[in-house]
What does this fold into?
Amino acid sequence: MTISLEIPSIHDASLKNSDSASPTMTYHRPTLHIPLPISDIIYSAAGGAHYSGAPVSDDDDDDEVVSSPGKPSPPMDDTIRDRIMADLKELYCCRPSKEIFERTWRPDAIFEDPLVKCEGYAQYAPQWFAMPRIFSKSETISSRVMSFTGMPKRLIYSQTQEYTLRYIETKKVCSSIIVVDLDDDDKIIRMTDQWNGETLSSWFGVNLLRRANALVTPWLVGVPKA
It folds into this structure.
């Protein structure tokens, strides 16, 4: 865009002496063309409106913004994952044993599902030893590892299990998301079984009932001593 500025003219209409007329000098109005970078001004103003006050260096054009992701989780040993999943499969298939708990579970571990919240071996072991009394058969239809990380040490996998109720032989299929937290010795310190992938209820009444179930089952089902 060009703006035209005019410089005021100066006129000497006539310069006369007393004897004769002298030549007339006329100054024409020149037009001064000053180019203004309007588009640059607009963008500069817009940039100034968003300026946050950070210093700008001369070589900003060469700077690159580099994201700083969190520290990557160290790789985990697949043999640990396979051992844990194999032992849990034995439990879900109604084949509990003292050796499984000694090998894979910590004595003070917590086990949760929508029906119980167990704290320690004396509470969680009876839940597994009760299953063969309730189900005549339990079969793992499918399982898939979703994640296995080192920070935190956690295994998450999905599982579909088919249970057959004892005596009436009714079958029930249950799909779950199972979250397993491990300690530094790769033993289970917490396990949560989320039926249908749903988060466990935080309602006080439900949690009170879950704790009651965890306390009652040991009275009904005996387990090998830890």
User: Anything to note?
Assistant: Residues 1-21, 26-69 have pLDDT under 50 and may be disordered. The chain has five helices and ten strands.
